[in-house]
Specification:
heterodimer; A: alpha+beta; six-stranded mixed sheet; 8 helices; 23% helix; B: mainly alpha; Potassium Channel Kv1.1, Chain A; three-stranded mixed sheet; 7% strand; elongated
């Protein structure tokens, strides 16, 4: 009877599905080929946020807990504009840049939520001495994975002035269409130090250029 | 009381609320209704059933603890239950320590028994907490997972990866390692 359970993939799967996501991702696949194969089962791929969960309900969308812990500025559902250069630089990424940067790093493939977010509204706002300009875009059919979210946001963070926030649609908080709304803002003054930029350390080698179909800039001049 | 009969034909009188922690037995009881007929458990031996159902030694206890703790239900008065159940909800820290000590003791059962218990827990459908606690490190850091090497040792698993394969998998998920 002995190794029966552990060497029976169906039973092993039943056990592993209860592991916290970090352990399921980091420890389980390294035990043996059998264990690795079991982590590729549909149930465990869903638990790992690699595959969409058809049973997950959109009204109780669950954020990927491991990503939320690892990429805090992308998940903080607060009204403040807390996403900025500094917030990105203080992510766990800074402690192991090589592990995060490499192309095959699995965070890029991970779904940001279950069920996956499909529609993202992006609003960009730039204000300066003369007035304020805004433009808007909607990205659809995303099945949003972290790689796409990261590649969408990071190019905006050109300097120390830009900041962003993400609001998640949970049925109440976000009005209008979209599972999430990304707002990017920058208010430039004449005293800004624009020399500080996000270093190459935070560049993902797997980066793909995301075409954001922005509408026209609409500018209002200050009175 | 419910009468259970194990694979080696031993009979166990067990309290209904204890055996009902097993989803399998609960469903059986619902199907059969009130009855004095013994419930046969052809896949579970008496020594394993003792481990699984005896309060304070079996994995059901951990399940019970989990359930009582999570639902903040009323305390159950029973001398056979571990003192953990009599603790108030706010003694979180103590509780964690207790569970860890309990695990440590429990994990000292021999290999064969460990496997049989896992198998029985699966069969009886009371596996969730039990199995999870085995994979995690119950002895030292309550939070962390067992590293792959330790899991292999615990379950007698041979590492059949080539170093290259192992390195490749590690590379993909290294970002998520605890640090």
């Amino acid at each position: 009877m002995s190794a029966e359970v552990i060497s029976t993939p169906e039973l092993l799967e039943q056990i592993l599905v209860h592991l916290p996501i970090r352990d399921l991702l980091v420890a389980a696949p390294l035990v043996s080929k059998t264990w690795h194969a079991v982590t590729l089962s549909p149930a465990l791929q869903r638990a790992l946020f690699f595959e969409p969960d058809p049973l997950a309900s959109a009204s109780t969308r669950v954020k990927n807990p491991l990503l939320a812990e690892t990429f805090p500025p992308f998940f903080e559902d607060d009204p403040h504009w807390s996403g900025n250069l500094e917030a990105i630089e203080s992510m766990p990424w800074s402690k192991a840049p090589d592990a995060f940067k490499r192309q095959e790093a699995s965070w890029r493939r991970m779904l940001v939520t279950q069920p996956p977010a499909q529609t993202m509204v992006i609003e960009q706002e730039v204000s300066g001495m003369a007035g304020i300009s805004e433009r808007r875009a909607v990205l659809k059919d995303l099945s949003l994975r972290m790689g796409v979210l990261y590649d969408t946001i990071v190019p905006f963070i050109e300097d120390d002035v830009v900041c962003f926030r993400i609001q998640w649609h949970n049925g109440i908080a976000l009005e209008g269409p979209g599972d999430l709304k990304l707002e990017v803002g920058a208010g430039y003054g004449c005293m800004d130090d624009l020399s500080r930029t996000l270093g190459g350390r935070f560049h993902s080698d797997g980066e793909k250029v995301i075409e954001v179909p922005f509408g026209k800039w609409e500018t209002r001049m200050w009175d | 009381m419910v009468l259970l009969v194990t694979s080696d034909n031993e009979q166990f009188q067990t309290e209904k609320d204890i055996v009902e922690r097993s989803v399998l037995i609960k469903n059986m009881l619902e199907d059969v209704g009130e009855s004095d007929q013994p419930i046969p458990l052809p896949n579970v031996s008496s020594s394993v059933l003792k481990k699984v159902t005896q309060p304070s030694t079996g994995p059901t206890e951990i399940d019970v603890r989990g359930r009582y703790l999570s639902t903040a239900s009323t305390t159950v008065e029973s001398p056979s239950r571990p003192p953990i159940l009599e603790q108030s909800q706010d003694e979180t820290r103590k509780r964690t320590t207790d569970i860890s000590e309990w695990d440590q003791k429990f994990i000292t059962v021999d290999q064969e028994m460990l496997f049989e218990i896992i198998l029985a827990a699966n069969y009886l459908d009371i596996k969730s907490l039990l199995c999870r606690r085995w994979l995690q490190d119950g002895s030292q850091h309550d939070q962390g997972a067992r590293p792959p090497e330790e899991i292999r040792k615990l379950f007698n698993i041979v590492n059949d990866f080539t170093p290259e394969e192992e390195a490749q998998i590690k590379k993909e998920n290294e970002w998520a390692e605890d640090r």
